[in-house]
């Protein structure tokens, strides 16, 4: 393969977006390595906390009516353990490689090449899960800035979704200036509305589920 062939395939209508995103990922990781800065904010799932996010407002959003299905999906991909920046970068790389070599060996119409990106991305996520699985114990022990996990018992914050009975919701707390999102349940099953200020009063150390009640401070 010549360099010109490489460029033609990498920046074909099918692969251009993937190539640009992959290039941005490389720039991000180079910036992180050189400066030592990392724009991470914690996401804690309902089963085992420890994944950071790189979404615009610093955390995942789930539907108020039932966030558990989404969280189970994250759990399946090990995103309750693995930093999402690691996961997405590697998934993107797997998808790009699959699309690149598929179009190199079997030239496809543009519409079909774009359509195939979706199953390729799914396959890339599953392969990434397998590749990163040996590192799960490491990611469990530290958060994504290399520090010991924070103690949240007694901290206050606001609910990002309504909870009651055994329903799992989301709570935002601040550690210094860093917002972190935890998965929480109502301590006594009482309904707590979105936006309510609550306090963490108990936790499940194994599953890292946090139990909250309405804060007495307003």
Automatic annotation (TrEMBL):
InterPro entries xref list: NA-bd_OB-fold (IPR012340)
UniProt keywords, alphabetically: Membrane, Transmembrane, Transmembrane helix
Species lineage: Bacteria, Pseudomonadati, Bacteroidota, Flavobacteriia, Flavobacteriales
Naturally occurring in which organism (per UniProt): Chryseobacterium pennae
Protein name: DUF1449 family protein
Transmembrane annotation, as ranges: 6-31, 81-102, 108-132
Domain of life: Bacteria
């Amino acid at each position: 393969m010549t360099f010109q062939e490489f460029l033609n395939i990498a920046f074909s209508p099918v692969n251009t977006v993937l190539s640009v995103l992959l290039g941005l990922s490389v720039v991000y990781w180079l910036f992180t390595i050189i400066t030592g800065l990392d724009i991470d904010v914690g996401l804690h799932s309902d089963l085992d906390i420890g994944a950071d996010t790189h979404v615009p407002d610093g955390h995942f959003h789930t539907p108020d009516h039932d966030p558990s299905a989404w969280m189970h999906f994250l759990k399946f991909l090990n995103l309750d353990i693995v930093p999402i920046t690691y996961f997405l970068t590697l998934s993107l790389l797997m998808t790009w490689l699959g699309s690149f070599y598929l179009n190199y060996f079997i030239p496809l119409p543009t519409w079909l090449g774009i359509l195939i990106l979706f199953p390729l991305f799914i396959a890339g996520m599953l392969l990434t899960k397998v590749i990163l699985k040996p590192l799960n114990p490491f990611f469990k022990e530290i958060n994504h800035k290399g520090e010991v996990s924070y103690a949240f018992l007694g901290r206050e914050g606001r609910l990002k979704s309504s909870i009651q009975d055994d329903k799992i919701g989301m709570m935002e707390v601040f550690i210094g200036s860093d917002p972190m999102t935890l998965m929480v349940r109502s301590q006594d099953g009482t309904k707590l509305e979105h936006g309510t200020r609550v306090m963490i009063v108990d936790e499940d150390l194994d599953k890292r589920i946090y139990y909250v009640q309405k804060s007495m401070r307003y």
